[in-house]
Design goal:
Elements: H1 2-41, H2 46-49, H3 58-92, H4 100-118, H5 127-135, H6 140-170, H7 174-202, H8 213-228, H9 238-261, H10 265-272, H11 276-284, H12 286-294, H13 309-320, H14 322-325, H15 327-349, H16 351-363, H17 367-375, H18 378-393, H19 402-438, H20 445-472, H21 484-499, H22 507-536
Helix pairs in contact: 1-3, 1-6, 3-4, 3-6, 4-7, 4-8, 6-7, 7-9, 11-12, 12-18, 15-16, 15-19, 16-19, 17-20, 18-20, 19-20, 19-22, 20-22
C-alpha cells in the first residue's frame, strides 16, 4: 500500500510539473507571438500591412506562432553558437605561439565561471517569471525548477552540438569536448546552490542582475585571465582544467538536492519581482536605470553664461549630467592614451613587434571602425537625453514644433561630436605617430589618412545615433524601447562594424573611403532629419 501511495504521489508530482512546463511554454509563446506582431508593426511599410486586429486573428496567429517558435529555437541555440564561435573559437585562433586547442580550453574554462556567476537562469528576474508567479500565482518552486531544468537542457544541447564541432576544429581532444557540456551545467548548478545557501544563511540577494563588488571584481579578473594570459603565452594546463571540470560536475550533481529541496522560492522571487514596473524596466532598460542613478541634480545650480533658449537648455543638461556624459569619456581617453603609449613604445622594446605593427596600421585599418563603434558614446547620450530631458518635454506642444526640433538637433549634434572627438583625436594622433615611427619612408599621405580616419568615424557614429534617435524615437513614456526598426538598425550597425575586423584593405584606400562615406552620410542624415524628424520625434504609445 505504501509503495502504491508513493507511486501515485510521484505520478501526481510528475503530472503537475508537466502541466507547469506546458503553461510556461504557453505563456512564453503568447508573449513571443505578441512581441513578434508588435515588432513587425514598428517596421516601415510592414506596419501598414498588419492590421491592429492581428493580435486576435486566429488564422494569422498560426503564422506568428511559427515565427515565435522559430524565435524560441534560435534564441536557444544561435546564442550558444555565437558565444562559442566568437568569444572562444575565433579568439583562440588569434594567439601566436599558443596551440589553439589549449587556448580554446583555457578561455572556455574561465568564461564558464563568469557565466555561472552572472547568468544562472534560476535567479534572472524575467517577464515570464513575473507573469507566472506574481500575476497567475503559480507554484513558485515548481515553476522555478521546471524552467531551470529546461534552460539547463538547452545549455547542454547547445554546448554538446556546437562545442563538439568547433572544439574538434580547434583540435580539442574528443573526451574534453564531451566533458565540457557536463562541466558547464555543473558549474551553473553549483553556483545556483551556493546562491541558495547564502540566501538562507545571510539573506544574500541572489538576483543575478545585482552588481555587488565581489561579483564585478571576480568577473573582471576572470575575463582578464581568460583573454590576457594567452597573449603572454600562459595557459592553464589542460590536465588541470579537466580535473577541475570533473570536480565541478560532481559538485553540480550534489547541488541538485539543494535546488530541489529549497522551499523559499516564492520569497526569493517576491523580492526580485517586487514591483511590476521596476521588474519590466530592469529586464530591458538596465542602462537607463544606471543613467538615472548617475544623475546629480542640484536645483540651486546656476550657469553664468550669455546663452538663452535651447542653447541654455542644452548647456544646463550637459552641466547637470557631467557624470554620465563626460566621466566615461575621460576614462576611455585614459585607456586610449595607455594604448597609444604602448603602441609607440612596444616596437622599440620588442623587435618582432615592429613589423607586426606596421602590417596592422597599413593593411588592417578597418578595425578602427569597430574600435570607434565600441568607444562611441552616441547611444548613451541619446538615452540620457530621453530619460532626463525629452521624456518630459515631449509632452508639450511647443517642443514638438519643427523649428524647435531642428534647432535643438543642431545644438545637440555639436555637443555629442565634441564629447566623442576627445578619444578619437587621441587615437588618430597616436596611431599616426606610431606609423611614422615604424614606417618613416612611406608616402606621408598615409599618416594624414590615419590621423583623420578616427575623428571622421567618430563624427559618423555621433551623427548616426542622434539621427536614428530623432527619426525613429524608440522610447515610450515608460522609457521602454518600442521601436522594432530602431533595434534592427542598431543590430545592423554592430554586425557591419564587427564584420570589418575580418577585412584587410590598404590604409589609404580604406581611410579615404571611410572619410568620404562619413561626410556623405552626415550630410544625407542631417537632410533626412530636417525633412522627417518633425513627424517622427514624439513619444511612442
Amino acid at each position: 500500500m505504501r509503495d502504491r501511495h508513493n507511486i501515485k504521489k510521484q505520478t501526481q508530482r510528475q503530472n503537475s510539473m508537466a502541466k507547469t512546463l506546458r503553461i510556461s511554454f504557453e505563456l512564453r509563446n503568447a508573449y513571443n507571438v505578441n512581441s513578434v506582431i508588435y515588432a513587425l508593426k514598428q517596421i516601415f511599410l510592414i506596419k501598414k500591412i498588419i492590421p491592429e486586429s492581428a493580435y486576435g486573428m486566429g488564422n494569422l496567429k498560426v503564422l506568428f506562432n511559427i515565427l515565435a517558435l522559430f524565435k524560441e529555437i534560435t534564441g536557444a541555440f544561435i546564442g550558444k553558437l555565437f558565444y562559442i564561435a566568437v568569444m572562444i573559437f575565433m579568439v583562440s585562433g588569434l594567439y601566436k605561439g599558443v596551440e589553439q586547442s589549449d587556448a580554446y580550453i583555457h578561455i572556455l574554462f574561465l568564461l564558464t565561471f563568469v557565466g555561472a556567476m552572472i547568468n544562472t537562469y534560476l535567479f534572472n528576474p524575467s517577464r515570464d517569471k513575473y507573469y507566472a508567479i506574481v500575476l497567475l500565482r503559480m507554484n513558485a518552486k515548481e515553476y522555478a525548477i521546471v524552467n531551470y531544468g529546461y534552460e539547463l537542457i538547452k545549455v547542454f544541447v547547445g554546448f554538446m552540438l556546437f562545442g563538439c564541432i568547433l572544439g574538434g576544429v580547434s583540435g580539442v581532444p574528443a573526451y574534453v569536448n564531451i566533458i565540457i557540456p557536463f562541466f558547464v551545467v555543473g558549474a551553473k548548478l553549483t553556483s545556483s546552490a551556493a546562491g541558495l545557501y547564502r540566501y538562507e544563511k545571510w539573506q544574500y540577494d541572489p538576483n543575478e542582475n545585482s552588481a555587488d563588488k565581489i561579483k564585478v571584481i571576480s568577473t573582471l579578473l576572470l575575463l582578464l585571465a581568460a583573454y590576457g594570459l594567452p597573449a603572454l603565452k600562459l595557459i592553464i594546463p589542460v590536465p588541470v582544467s579537466v580535473v577541475i571540470m570533473i570536480v565541478m560536475i560532481f559538485t553540480g550533481i550534489l547541488s541538485i538536492r539543494k535546488i530541489l529541496t529549497f522551499d523559499q522560492y516564492r520569497t526569493v522571487y517576491g523580492k526580485m519581482l517586487k514591483e511590476a514596473d521596476i521588474q519590466i524596466e530592469k529586464a530591458d532598460n538596465v542602462k537607463l536605470e544606471e543613467s538615472r542613478k548617475a544623475i546629480q541634480i542640484d536645483d540651486s545650480d546656476e550657469i553664468a553664461c550669455n546663452k538663452k533658449g535651447f542653447e541654455y537648455l542644452n548647456l544646463l543638461f550637459v552641466n547637470r549630467h557631467k557624470k554620465i556624459l563626460w566621466k566615461p569619456v575621460m576614462r576611455i581617453s585614459v585607456i586610449c592614451l595607455m594604448v597609444v603609449i604602448a603602441a609607440i613604445v612596444s616596437p622599440f622594446m620588442f623587435s618582432d613587434v615592429k613589423a607586426g605593427t606596421k602590417e596592422l596600421l597599413m593593411k588592417e585599418l578597418p578595425i578602427s571602425l569597430f574600435i570607434m563603434y565600441f568607444i562611441n558614446r552616441g547611444a548613451s547620450f541619446t538615452q540620457a537625453l530621453f530619460m532626463n530631458c525629452d521624456h518630459s518635454l515631449l509632452t508639450y506642444t511647443f517642443y514638438r514644433k519643427p523649428n524647435a526640433i531642428l534647432e535643438l538637433f543642431k545644438i545637440r549634434l555639436k555637443g555629442i561630436i565634441k564629447i566623442n572627438l576627445v578619444p578619437a583625436v587621441m587615437l588618430g594622433c597616436g596611431f599616426a605617430m606610431t606609423l611614422f615611427l615604424v614606417a618613416p619612408h612611406i608616402n606621408p599621405i598615409n599618416y594624414l589618412v590615419v590621423l583623420v580616419t578616427f575623428p571622421a568615424e567618430s563624427i559618423f557614429f555621433s551623427v548616426h545615433y542622434l539621427v536614428i534617435y530623432y527619426l525613429l524615437q524608440p522610447y515610450n513614456a515608460g522609457t521602454e524601447i518600442k521601436s522594432g526598426m530602431y533595434q534592427v538598425v542598431t543590430a545592423l550597425t554592430y554586425v557591419v562594424c564587427y564584420a570589418m575586423i575580418q577585412i584587410k584593405i590598404p590604409t589609404f584606400v580604406f581611410g579615404m573611403a571611410a572619410i568620404g562615406f562619413s561626410m556623405l552620410y552626415c550630410v544625407t542624415a542631417c537632410v533626412l532629419v530636417y525633412k522627417i524628424a518633425p513627424k517622427t520625434f514624439k513619444l511612442r504609445a
